[in-house]
Amino acid sequence: MKKLYYSIGEVSDITDVEAHVLRYWETVFDELNPKKNKAGNRVYKENDIETILKLKELIQEKKYSTEGAQQVLKKDDEDDESKEIPVSVKKDLKEIRLFLNELLEKL
């Protein structure tokens, strides 16, 4: 299920973060900067999704402000220690859950 690029809708489904929130986070966080294709649509890579999942954890789950989340991201870049569950594993699990839910709907 791994792809080189994901649309904003796919990223929204994988991360459970609405598209308008993703667009807003792009304006606030330098770490989140998806490219745009020739049609002008955002295309996200794996590392963008990992960043979004980290932001979701900080802002929506741990209730950090955007400034606080920026500080944590900068500190994480400096420290780069291993966490309890790597963000890439969380992303993979979200993709699996999405796939299984789609499969369940077909049954």
Automatic annotation (TrEMBL):
Full protein name: HTH merR-type domain-containing protein
Keyword DNA-binding attributed: yes
Alphabetical list of PROSITE patterns matching this protein: HTH_MERR_2 (PS50937)
Keyword DNA-binding: yes
This protein's UniProt keywords: DNA-binding
GO molecular-function term, one example from the UniProt record: DNA-binding transcription factor activity
Limits of the HTH merR-type domain: 5-75
